[in-house]
Design goal:
Number of helices: 2
Order of helices and strands: EHEEH
Shape: elongated
Number of strands: 3
Oligomer: single chain
Strand order of the largest sheet: 1-2-3
Largest sheet: 3 strands, antiparallel
Helix content: 10-25%
Distance between the termini: 45 Å
């Protein structure tokens, strides 16, 4: 994630209902899906994604089980380091 800061977006006040300081800064991060910039603040309901589209694409990949933990070898096919464990 990048650490650069950008001016708070004008829609921040409308999105949160809280007053927004024009001089406030907002943390910018890289969208995990499209690698574009994304506002990481309560004003972005899709955070850490930049949009609902990127969020949906990522959710679809999880639903299709595209993200998996690599399988380890079967214990029988692994060389034994300590014969006492067998």
């Amino acid at each position: 994630m990048s650490r650069k800061r950008a001016p708070a977006p004008p829609q921040a006040e409308a999105a949160t209902g809280l007053p927004c300081d024009a001089n406030a800064t907002v943390r910018m991060v890289t969208c995990p899906q499209c690698k574009g910039e994304s506002v990481f603040a309560p004003s972005n309901p899709h955070r850490p994604f930049c949009s609902q589209r990127c969020k949906d694409i990522d959710f679809g990949a999880w639903a299709e089980e595209s993200f998996r933990v690599p399988e380890n070898q079967e214990p029988d096919s692994m060389p034994a380091e300590d014969q006492r464990l067998q």
